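Q: What does the assembly look like in three dimensions?
Context provided by user:
Components: two
Sequences:
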Amino acid sequence: MKRSGEHPLARWLPILDWGRRYDRHRLTDDLLAALIVTLMLVPQALAYAMLAGLPPVTGLYASLLPLAIYTLLGSSSTLSVGPMAVVSLMTAAALGRVAEAGSADYVAAALVLALLSGVILLVMGLCRLGFLVNFLSHPVMTGFVSASGVLIAASQLKHLLGVPLSGSTLPALLDGLPQAIAGLGMATPLVGLGSLAMLWSLRRWGRGGLMRLGVPGRAAALLLKLAPIVTIVVAALVAGAAGWLGHGVAVIGTIPAGLPPLGLPTGEPELWRTLLWPAVLISIVGYVESVSVAQALAVRRGERLEPDQELIGLGGANLAAAFSGGMPITGGFSRSVVNFDAGARTPAAGAFTALGILLVMLTFSPWLERLPMASLAATIIIAVLSLVDLPAFVRVWRYARGEGVAMVATVAATLFGGVEIGILVGVGLSLALHLYGTSRPHTAEVGRVPGTEHFRNVRRHAVETDARVAILRVDESLYFANVRHLEDRVTAVVNRQPPPRHLVLTCQAINVIDATALESLEALNRRLAAAGIGLHLAEVKGPVMDRLEDTSLMKTLNGRVFLSTFEAWQMLLRSTIAQPAAGGATVRHRATSGEQGPCV
Amino acid sequence: MKRSGEHPLARWLPILDWGRRYDRHRLTDDLLAALIVTLMLVPQALAYAMLAGLPPVTGLYASLLPLAIYTLLGSSSTLSVGPMAVVSLMTAAALGRVAEAGSADYVAAALVLALLSGVILLVMGLCRLGFLVNFLSHPVMTGFVSASGVLIAASQLKHLLGVPLSGSTLPALLDGLPQAIAGLGMATPLVGLGSLAMLWSLRRWGRGGLMRLGVPGRAAALLLKLAPIVTIVVAALVAGAAGWLGHGVAVIGTIPAGLPPLGLPTGEPELWRTLLWPAVLISIVGYVESVSVAQALAVRRGERLEPDQELIGLGGANLAAAFSGGMPITGGFSRSVVNFDAGARTPAAGAFTALGILLVMLTFSPWLERLPMASLAATIIIAVLSLVDLPAFVRVWRYARGEGVAMVATVAATLFGGVEIGILVGVGLSLALHLYGTSRPHTAEVGRVPGTEHFRNVRRHAVETDARVAILRVDESLYFANVRHLEDRVTAVVNRQPPPRHLVLTCQAINVIDATALESLEALNRRLAAAGIGLHLAEVKGPVMDRLEDTSLMKTLNGRVFLSTFEAWQMLLRSTIAQPAAGGATVRHRATSGEQGPCV
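A: Here is the predicted structure of the complete assembly.
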């Protein structure tokens, strides 16, 4: 959000900024949004806690204090934080390593994990490390989230069908399926698949139906966000009428009455060490998800998001979750969009949502206890289907094959190796791909576009060239990984018969010359000088020239530095005109295949 | 070396190429070079085996068959392979983990390590992975080698002074020094320090002395390469006369007569697993050292080196070492330079050197057995002093602070964490530094250099600008790690009052637009279109344009693609001339501080 920054502390506590402009209109809007989000959030919080292998009430606890803290610290006006699908899956993967799902140790470890995530996010925020998020490429993130969606859906089959399945990879999860299906009951699959069918139908035809009933389109869309709670309640009523609840159809079970337990997370040092690395991954993935949503919504409102402040907001929210019986949380896509569409104006909507959930907990917990797990699983499955973005695969694959391969590899690593391996493979591959690309820089020999001061690739355009003056455009910053390629290219050019008298390196695309490249240029300069060929630079950028100024390259350069390629071309041709080159180097007009478009 | 490639197998066996041109002149040159290198190599091979914690004879074994194999497979005419300082240090670090120095297991493990290195190098060569070497930046490599030199010198103190010291890091090596010095003997330090003094004096004044005796400069320099063997022989004679050899002054000891033992390396699978990773590091470091030397010498002769063939040559040589009682080897700097200076013409010089060493072994082993270890240690210490390149630190630090920090960090990591941690820290830091740099791209708003078609940074040059047309030059390829910075920069420009009517992105420095950046540009295009601002591209390079062609960005672009910035400037100004901008956007001449040099 736009912040005037008048209050000295507003930099760290955005609420000081928007709080003073708060009025009745904003209050009404925020309250309405909070009501809708609350109704949507209750089943979501229960379901994602279940996905993480935690008691469902943990999800509710994680939706109280953290939302209030984010209201104080967050910089997004519409982001809604709480338990989220991918982070819950990662939580399950991390905790499964240290304790048995559902045990007291498991619950305690979840608090440690939330605390570690909170600290990591806060530290990143205070160190202004928000830029690190930039190192996750979109294709890799899309691949990771899509594959996580598949993993999540598979992990919910056990609740949906009431069969024993476990594991954190797709093969492990599907391994016991045939056997499990053989021992299938009747009641649970009926409730689960029935809920799935109802959710699917509402999603498919609900909006049209409501509009035919006279509900305006936008309101209809908002109302349909309540489909999960409606479905679960209907399923609970039907299963209750059939006498299945608790007898054949598993229900959520005891939800302790009252406020969340406050306290410090505890655990052996060994536990903290084991959970540190998963906490790093959870923090990064959670932050990336959260900041992407917040950014998208901020742009739609013309607001500005502070990535580093978001780290602090999320970090504070996770600490709050750790101190109040919760679990690792982050900003969620669907709930934030609902908050946005329902008209939330300020972060206060989040605090009101927390109040709403508290009210529900205090009033309705006996009812919540009787909700069927199978229906909750159905809501998760429907929700994560939207995480699978198949068109993105096609789009990326067609635009950039290498990135497409990285994307597919990320999917495979996530499905077959689990979420942590998946995200690491993805990040590693996208960095490796980028480095590989820059290590083989594109270079082009250029000539003059007739009648202009413009120079273009001789292989793509009809341009003037001269055998005495070779002009090489280097299309990449020069650094340690790619200097050898440049050396090879220059060698090829100067080994021509007749050799050129001058070699001009056009540096418009060179943004950095590192120490390794500098050494290499110095060696090149010596070699060309020995061969009687001048080495000239053109269009060297300011920041690059500033650093070259004092180097021995500039002191010994066997040639000149020109402002523009055109200037180099004019001056060097003029200086060599008195000495015709061995090969009769007249300016020739080279006509190549028609290509003439707006490309170099 | 230049290869005509006439023989179909010459690609893989360079000997088929140079072999057929072999004649009597080349033979004479190669024989002379081999004689000098042999005399230099014998003490070196013994000393480096000792450095690796292996029986000295191992160094001789590693200088026989491997040299012959390299002669067949290598592409450098002057590279001399064998045991080398840094690789021997790394070998000691790796073997120290699996067995006690000097034990039979230790010797067997050295063969496994050589075998693994050989296989890794061969596989890299066959997969044409020679380019991987480019990912080690010079500053990091210089830092690593310098620190290794210090570690090696420190590790030789125990032999030089005849005291018990051990460890693979500087603190560990120096830890026992005070206590060791308290228990110092007399004979060994006398021999060791005496040898050191003699070597130092020969190095310092030897050449001048020889030249005063009438020896030509070049011959004097070559003769001085024999200083180590002369020193060791003198030390042995003196110590022998004093009756110290074997009584107070440790000697090399038993050197088995006859040929090296041939056989396959063996070991537990666990051993192979443990040594795999060290073997990878040894292969990479050895290859980088070797290829740098070979490259430098090839340039001096105008020959061309095939990096992938070098991998195969080194891989074959290491396999040969593994099968004949050797140790991991690589191409060495000093011995190759001696080979070069002594006039070696073809790889045959290497084979002759191997023959020479064999002769020495068969004839002189009783003499070799009585060489004092302290003198060998002195030769190592003098040799590795040249690895420490202090001026490079100053140069790099002044040119690029970030790389200087990486260099110093590499030194610290090597000294205090050992060679393996050192090289990993170095590679990691140089990549991280590069990525960090490209993630914060330089962007410049540009204006027209009056009277030309050239556009330069408004903050550095006196250029014409127009409030209606903002021209932003992006000085970096657009990829996932840096698109957010561009978004921020564009936002700052279009939020100006009055806002521009057109935004031109000058893409001359953009070599790649990846899928993440494409999405970001599409989003930018939508935002600017909504704000009524045209988004135009200029100077898009051919390869970039080819890929953009079919994307939705090109289909929905709210503006045009211009061949040059000048064209964009002309056309856009003409089109907006009828509609004066809110802020009275006359073309203004902006004069900035004098800077006018050849920089953008």
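Follow-up: Chain B has two domains: 24-127+168-373, 443-590.
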